[in-house]
Structures are given as structure tokens and as C-alpha cells.
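User: Here's a chain of 366 residues. Predict its fold as C-alpha cells.
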Amino acid sequence: MDENRGDEIRGTAGGTAPVPLSVLDLVTVGQGRTATQALRTSVDIAKLAENRGFHRFWVAEHHSMPGVASSSPAVILAHLAAHTERIRLGSGGVMLPNHAPLVIAEQFGTLEAMAPGRVDLGLGRAPGTDGATAAALRRTDRLNEGADDFPQQLAELIRFLDDDFPDGHPYARIHAVPGPVQATSPGGVQSPGRPPVWLLGSSGFSARLAGVLGLPFAFAHHFSARNTVPALDLYRESFKPSAVLDAPYALIGVAALAAEDEREARRQVLTGALSMVRLRTGRPGLVPTPEEAEAYDFSPMEREFVDGWLKDIVHGTPDEVRTGLDDLAKRTGADELMITANAHGGEARLRSYELIADAYGLPGTI
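Assistant: Prediction complete.
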């Protein structure tokens, strides 16, 4: 195993946390707010996460959703790299079928040059949007083909990242720059390092593939909680030691929000639940205010959905959230928890991460 790559993947738990804690950010845009304000909030959260000892900060690719301004992870990560110094930055994830592998290798090679040794490349096989938008992104209506070709696209991307296509391959003379080729060019001093690749998933497909390839795995517990334990079991059962990892390493995305009192936490998470109701019924929009969410007249079917949705969000006082995260880490055996706090305003999200950090005694506690 390449020890350097393993060290880049594994985190260290801080304070009394059972496992390393990280952040997943969707750059959410609330009603009455702009994308500019949302991006500034993301910078503020990244700075807070770095100062408080969170291990990594990822952003996710989504499209055609007014309330989610993270359509261009590489652009956002470059901005975050300019405002942070230590925290790992990455995609959670880039949707590989939406892009040519060479383009992703170039983008993340550039990010690696900007922030050496602290960039992660998380990859998913879903479109990150609806079918019509995916067709517009890919300029094809054959969407299933992209998902089915995921293993081949992944292998091609890794070849570009490592610059090791075999002789005779059509791409043997094509290089992703910045990248390792610069180290082997006459007079080259470019570091041959490259971002570690993670596979993301919400079902068993990517879990098995990550295991077979010996790659780290990130599971979307925050919107597929029923599949979490089976997927992690499949990943561990399928795992084969590789040059990247000698043992499985899995993180799970967790929706969690802490507030000073339980009622306020519920008010905040209800905004995300209403957003999901609207998304699932073909009405995506900006994240509603807590006042609108509380006043909304949910139908019986919508209420059933919301009740089920809220059960999978760890929310309440800091002590309640800490207990919920501890229980989840124990139940799933996850090696890392990546927390996403979805609410209308940036203030509530920032405060939540601060309260969670305090609850675990992470560095910087006032």
C-alpha cells in the first residue's frame, strides 16, 4: 500500500468524537437570499470547520435546483482553497457520467496544484438532477448508458490522474495537466501526487465497486438511510487491499442540525423537509423560511413523507445531536461522519456546526 495515500484518506477523531467529523455543504440558497450570500456562507462554514478541527469539507454537484448553488464543485473548491489553509477539500461528489474523464482529471489536477495534499475527488454515477437536465448536460438522451459505463469511465479517469495509459492505447500520448507528466518532463519539478479517489453511493453498486477496487467509500445515509448498513456490509465484504488502502474506510453523510433548544432545531430542519416535498413533487425552489414551513398545510401524504424524513435527521440540542451521532457511528461502524446541516439561513447552519464542535470539545472551544 502507498502509505501517503492511506494517510490522505484516514482522519483522526478530535475531542470526544467517536470518529473523525467532516462537513458536506450544498451551498443552499434560502428565500430572500442570493447565491452570492450562499457562497459566502460556505466560505464561513469552511473556515469554522477548519478552525474547529473538522477533517474535510466537501461540496456536491447538483443541477437545475434553485435552492442548491453547487452546480460547479471544482469552481467552488478553488474559491474555498483560497480561503483555507489546512482542511481537506473535495467533491461529494462530481457526477462522473456528466463529464469527460479528462476534464475532471484536469480540474482536480489544477485544484491539487492550488492546495497540494488536501484535495479529495469523490465520484458518483447518478446525474445529480432530473432526466431532462441530465440529457442537456450530457447532450444525449441515452442516460442509462452513462451509468452502465461508470466502471470504464472510472478506470479511464484514474489512468489520466496517474498518467499511465499503456503503450499503444489511443490516449497514451494525452496527458492531464497539471499532473504527473510534468514531473517526468525535462527539467520538471511538478509533484507527482494526485487527489485520492472516493466512490460515492446510495445503493450497493458503488459499494461493491469501491470494495473490489480497494477505494474509500462514502455512503449517502442522509437520503438513503435504509440502505446504509447493507451497503457498508457489502463494501467491507467485497474489499480487496490495494495500493490505496489496506483495509476498508467508509464515511457516511449525515443530516444533522443542533440548536440551543429542541423546538428551534425542529423549526430549522422543517425547512429542508418542505424543500424535499417540493423537489419530490416536481416543484424545486429556494429553501423556505422556518415561518413558511411551520405554516404550510401538509397533505396527509406529505405529512407522512415529512415524518419519515425527519426521523433520519439528527436534530435537537447539542447533547441530543451528540448522542444521535454517537449512536449512528456505533450502529453503522462508519469510520467517519460527514455532517450536512440544511436550513434556510446561513446563521443557523454556522451555529449548528459550532454547537456540535462544542459538544465534542473540538479545538477552539470558547
